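input
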Amino acid sequence: MLILFKHWSEAKWVHVRKLKLACHSMPVYSIGKLSAGSWPQLRKLALADINISTGPSLGVMQQLVRGDWPQLESLSLQNMQQDGECVSVLVTGNWRGLTCLDMGENHIASADFSELAKAGWQLKSLCLREAYFGGFVASMITAASGLTGLVACKWAQLLEVNLSDCSLECSAFATLVAASWPALLRIDISCNYVGAKGLKTLLQAKWPLLESLRMSRCALDIEAVRHLVQGNLPCLTALDISDNGFHRLDVIRQLVLGKWPLLNILDISVNDFEPLRWSTIGVANDQVVERNVWRFDDGGILRFSGQFAHGRWPKLAVLDLDSWYSSCL
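output
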C-alpha cells in the first residue's frame, strides 16, 4: 500500500477526482499505513469524491482532515474505528463544498450529530444505512434517542436521507417526524419496524416536496396502507412497499384510492398476493384503462400490455410485480 502511494508523487494524474479504498479483503492495518507518508501525494490531487469503507482509524481521520480539497463534494466513511473520536476529528475538515456524506455501518450517538451540525456543511445527501444509533449500545430503545441529535441538525438543503436497516421501530418515528428538512425529496426507511403506527406518525412530517418513499420490509399491513393513501403526499412519484408480506387483495383496493397524480413508479414486488384478476378489484370500468406497463427485474425489462386499474395515477409508467403468485394478471 505504501509503495503504491509513494509512486503517486511521480504520476501525472492531474485529473483524478475520485479516491476509493473499499476493498473488503484489504486488512485494516494496511489502510492505517496511509498516514506514514502517502498523504502528501494524495493532497496534491483535486479530489471531489473520497470513499474509505474499510474501517478508517483515528490516525487516518487525522490525516484526512488535513487535506486541502476545496472541490470535495462526496465523502464516504463506513465502519469507522473509534467512532465518536473520529467524528470529532472529521468535523474539523475545511470542506465547505461537501454536500454528500455516507456514514453507514457506524455506531452513532446523539452527540455525534451535534458535532456534525457544527461543521457548517450544507448537506444534500445523507446515508446512514445500517447505522447503530445510540453509540455502542445498539438497540431499538437507544435508536430513538440517537435520532434526537439527527433531527436537531438544520440542513435546509437536505434532499435525500437513507435510514434503511437501522433497527428503528415505531416509537423512533415520533422523533424523526420533527426533522426540519423542508427540501427533502427522498427518504429510505426500508428494513425497519415501521408498522401502521410508525407510518401514521411519519406521514405527519413537514416534508411537502417528498417525491420518493421507500418502505421495503417494514412490517406494513392493511391498516398501514390505509394511512398511506390518506396521507398528504401530492408530489409522490416513487413508492416502494415491496416485501411486506401482503397477501390479500384489500391492499390493492386501498392502493388504487391513493391520490398521487404524479406517481411514476410503484414497487409492490415480493408479496404473496392471492391469484388476481383486475376485474375483481371492484374499480369502475372508466378507471380501467388499456396501457403499456413496464416491469423491471434481474433479467432486464419485460414489456407487456394489460389492464391496470390506475384511476388516480395517470402518470404511472413503472409497475414492479415481480414474484407475485402465478396467474396474477
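quick obs: The radius of gyration is 23 Å.
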